[in-house]
Amino acid sequence: MWHPENPIRHQIPEARWPESEEAAKSLLFQPIGVGPVRLESRTWVPAMVPWRATDDGFVTRSNLDWYRRFAQGQPGALVVEATGVRDVASGPLLRIGHDRYIPGLRELVETVREASHGRTRLFIQIIDFLSVKRRPDKTKFFERFLALTEGHRRALTQATGEARWLDEGEREVRSFLGTAPDALLESVLDERELESLRFGYRERVTDTSLPHVRDLPRVLPEIFAAAARRAREAGFDGVELHYAHAYTMASFLSARNTREDGYGGRRENRVRLPLEVYRAVRERVGDDYVVGVRFLGDEVIEGGNRVDDASYFGVEFARAGFDYLSISKGGKFEDAKQPKVGQAVYPYTGRSGYECMPTVISDARGPFSRSVPVVSEIKRAVSSAGFTTPLVAAGGITTFEQAERILQSGEADIAGFARQALADPDWFLKVRLGLGTTVRRCTYTNYCEGLDQMHKQVTCKLWDHLDMDEQGIALSRDGKRRLLPPRWKEESDR
Ligand SMILES: Cc1cc2nc3c(=O)[nH]c(=O)nc-3n(C[C@H](O)[C@H](O)[C@H](O)COP(=O)(O)O)c2cc1C
Ligand code: SF4
Fold first, then answer.
1. Does ligand 1 lie within 6 Å of residue 371's CB atom?
2. 384: in domain
3. Do 77 and 102 belong together in one domain?
4. Nearest ligand to the C-alpha of residue 423?
5. How close is the Cα of 48 to the center of ligand 1, in Å?
6. Per-residue DSSP letter, 294
7. 206 located within any domain
8. Is the beta carbon of 394 within 6 A of some atom in ligand 1?
9. Which atom of ligand 1 is nearest to the CA of 81?
10. Contact 242, 294 (CB under 8 A)
């Protein structure tokens, strides 16, 4: 995990919890309209991937248990994890790229309705991503992956002063490069090849020489629209288009998108495909259905989008008709740490990753409400343009007073709690009932994020070793961790 220079270790903020009457009167627990639906409170659990689907992307019992547990806490809205819009292999991540996924997703919807007594609105985040390969073993890279060219031979000749490389057998060239020192490789390979060697091959939206990347603007609107139609058929209250972090749609929005086909370069062009996808989705699901978006208030990478870009996109998204704007930050590949051989690069290991899920080892500003300033700036732009589309803030929101202050000051309309909800999914119910002192407080040290990075079933360190002798509890694959927090005794009959 990346940390700022001269880090400061912050304490989690002291909390003063309201009595139930105060909670009932607070803005946080007032209803709010999100497009055609009404949330019972302005509390929100943003998407979190728990690594619990089958290898072919189906909903499992474990997924149902996970979302049931969040629903028992009755947040105003719960967003189901990033779910793939295509019907392609993507490990134990949920998919919605074919009608065969609808029955499992429908069961998930029913589970949440029942467990929340109908008090939690359920959205599903839908995502497209490009190919990312694991970091290869060096020998294997040169034996199998590098497309050897005349250019490599010439560079090798120049670097070594040996003309024999111009017509040496391919096997010899590959085997020599496989043991060559870094300095020599740097003069023989180009930037992308070096990146593929050191980080694993990763496609970009700017790789327009690849037909399937060139064609993204042609194919993605229909793929997203079909996925959104399935979400509606499965009974979700809405879909959230994932335009954030390191994935395809965020890469179209990025200031680093230099495509020259009208879908890159100027902001107006970068937002073109995201708007075309939105319109295709809207046309398919109709006006009486929630279509929201998650995008970045700041990419936090060199040459990336800043809050002024995000404000522009926010206004365009509101104008187009999105029902809510959920703001995240960072989470990019560009500044990610080098993975170990055999592992894939993880977009939450650099500075941008830190800004996405900030920890208590921080700079002077600290992790709490860290994204609120960018959310508030985007909100100002959206309001000035005459739109009332609600904005969701997330990032280190943990206490009642903190959330209430954000809403009262008009910096955001809805408070998102990701890790705090993972630490204690009953936060919402406990606080509403005046029982905030019983909340299990997130420590913002990112054990959960470490599990995500290793593609292990996500749990929280505060509860995954509690009451291990409880009858019938589900355990992680290695049998060492429970997969769900214990039930809150007082909650069972509310
Ligand atoms: C384990 C884990 C998985 C996550 N998965 C997603 C995801 O699927 N989609 C997404 O937009 N954000 C994802 N996030 C980011 C969160 O939604 C949230 O933006 C971030 O954790 C900051 O909010 P917090 O401080 O309340 O945790 C994930 C975060 C965690 C900890
Ligand atoms: S493991 Fe638990 S306490 Fe630690 S950051 Fe994640 S949710 Fe918070």
1. no
2. yes
3. yes
4. 2
5. 5
6. E
7. no
8. yes
9. 8
10. yes
Residue 423 alpha carbon, nearest atom of ligand 2: 7
CATH number at residue 406: 3.20.20.70
Residues 275 and 289 in one domain: yes
How far is the C-alpha of 80 from the C-alpha of 123, rounded, in Å? Answer: 6
The tally of domains found in the chain comes to 2
Protein residues with CB under 6 Å of any ligand 2 atom: 419, 422-423, 442-448, 460-462
Query: Is residue 75 situated within a structural domain?
Result: yes
Q: Are residues 261 and 363 in the same domain?
A: yes
> Which of 148, 166, 199 marks a domain boundary?
199
Residue 210 lies in a domain: no
Same domain, 227 and 186: no
Q: 163 lies in which domain range? A: 138-199
Helices vs strands, H then E, count in the chain: 20, 12
Pick the residue whose CA is nearest to atom 3 on ligand 2. Answer: 442
Return contacts of 4-8, CB within 8 angstroms, 24+ apart.
4/354, 4/361, 4/362, 4/363, 6/363, 7/361, 7/362, 7/363, 8/361, 8/362, 8/363, 8/364, 8/366
Query: What distance in angstroms lies between residue 422's CA and the mean position of ligand 2's atoms?
Result: 7
**Phi, psi angles (nearest 5°) of residue 2:** -75, 145
Residue nearest to ligand 1 atom 30, measured at CA: 48
DSSP secondary structure letters along 267-288:
HHHHTHHHHHHHHHHHHHH-TT
Query: Contact, 114 vs 126, CB < 8 A?
Result: no
In a shared domain, residues 71 and 143: no
Both 334 and 457 in one domain: the answer is: yes
Tell me which ligand sits closest to the C-alpha of residue 372. Answer: 1
Residue 276, phi then psi, degrees to nearest 5: -65, -40
**Same domain flag for 487 and 426:** yes
* Cβ–ligand 1 contact at 421 (below 6 Å): no
Mutate which of 48, 326, 370 for ligand 1? The one with the most ligand atoms within 8 Å of its CB, which is: 48
- The residue with tokens 């809510």 is 324
pLDDT digit string (tens) for the chain, length 494 residues: 788 888 999 999 999 999 999 999 999 999 999 999 999 999 999 999 999 999 999 999 999 999 999 999 999 999 999 999 999 988 899 999 999 999 999 999 999 999 999 999 999 999 999 999 999 999 999 999 999 999 999 999 999 999 999 999 999 999 999 999 999 999 999 999 999 999 999 999 999 999 999 999 999 999 999 999 999 999 999 999 999 999 999 999 999 999 999 999 999 999 999 999 999 999 999 999 999 999 999 999 999 999 999 999 999 999 999 999 999 999 999 999 999 999 999 999 999 999 999 999 999 999 999 999 999 999 999 999 999 999 999 999 999 999 999 999 999 999 999 999 999 999 999 999 999 999 999 999 999 999 999 999 999 999 999 999 999 999 999 999 999 999 997 655 55
Are 128 and 142 contained in the same domain? no
CA of 444 to the centre of ligand 2 (A): 6
